[in-house]
Amino acid sequence: MQVKEILNSGKVTLSFEVFPPKTSDAFEAVDAAVNQIAALRPDFMSVTYGAGGGTSAYTVRIAKDIKEKYGVTSLAHLSCVSSTREQVRGMLDQMKENGIENVLALRGDIPKDATFPLANQYHYASELIEEIRNYAPNLCIGAACYPEGHPESANKAEDIQHLKEKVDAGVDFITTQMFFDNAILHNYLYRIREAGVNVPVCAGIMPVTAASQMKRIFQLSGTYLPARFKSILDRFGGNPAAMKQAGIAYATEQIIDLIANGVDHIHVYTMNKPEIAAQIQANLSEIINL
């Protein structure tokens, strides 16, 4: 099934993101975690591509297993910044051969030591989206969006214009970067609708279950942290069990508030932790069946 069909069904949806192993010797452990998350039977699961495509060898394999073993719709990430057009078409061919119907098209992070762009490479995600739409027109295409603005955009208006370009190139739905203040998302949704972006939006939620995890998130994205979230980190950050419980509770509260206010599609960044995915799903057992 295609993700756009799920998102346009009129129902509340809960989906999970997982990531492939960085090395072959870690595959067994990652595969076990992914299988446990898939066994929860979310509405769909996305499989990341890794910085620079470093874990791309496993992306399609895992996405295929999710679909065939558990009957769960899978979404394979595909980034383009370190790939030639031939390499991207090769990945699209692999997806077709393995029955993958959904792709999340991303530019990806530019490698620190790379000369960018190289000949026959992509500059922006919108170019990748155009390539997919022309080369594999039957694929359902998702894209990323940034409620707080992409770090490389001059301002939020410019960032929304780039999002509009991606949607116009053929995007069927968008998934947000993580955020910890729902007011930021509501404001963003109003602004993108005003700009003519009318495709379904999945709200990306990151359950923060360790203080060290939050430090890395902030370093990478500079995400705004509400005072009450900082209080949780200050009070429970030194106690792993308490921080895990508090982080799951905060993410659950975020999701409940979003759904109560009309945001019906939730995508949880699980960090390959089945127990966290399971607890959040259990906390929402009646809510997501509305």
Mean pLDDT: 91
What's the total count of β strands?
Answer: 8
Order of helices and strands: HEHEHEHEHEHEHEHHHEH
Biggest sheet features? 8 strands, parallel, barrel
Number of DSSP helical runs: 11
Structural class: alpha/beta
Strand order of the largest sheet: 1-2-3-4-5-6-7-8
Radius of gyration: 18 Å
Q: State the end-to-end CA separation.
A: 21 Å
What does this structure look like?
The protein is built from eleven helices and eight strands. With 290 residues, it is α/β, with parallel strands linked by helices. The two termini are 21 Å apart. The mean pLDDT is 91.
Give a short synopsis of this structure.
By secondary structure, the chain is of the alpha/beta class. It is built from 11 helices and 8 strands.
Can you give keywords for this protein?
290 residues, alpha/beta, 47% helix
Write the layout of secondary structure elements.
Blueprint: H1 3-7, E1 13-18, H2 27-38, E2 44-47, H3 56-70, E3 73-79, H4 85-97, E4 102-106, H5 125-135, E5 140-145, H6 156-170, E6 173-176, H7 182-194, E7 201-205, H8 211-221, H9 227-236, H10 240-260, E8 265-269, H11 274-283
Parallel strand pairs: 1-2, 1-8, 2-3, 3-4, 4-5, 5-6, 6-7, 7-8
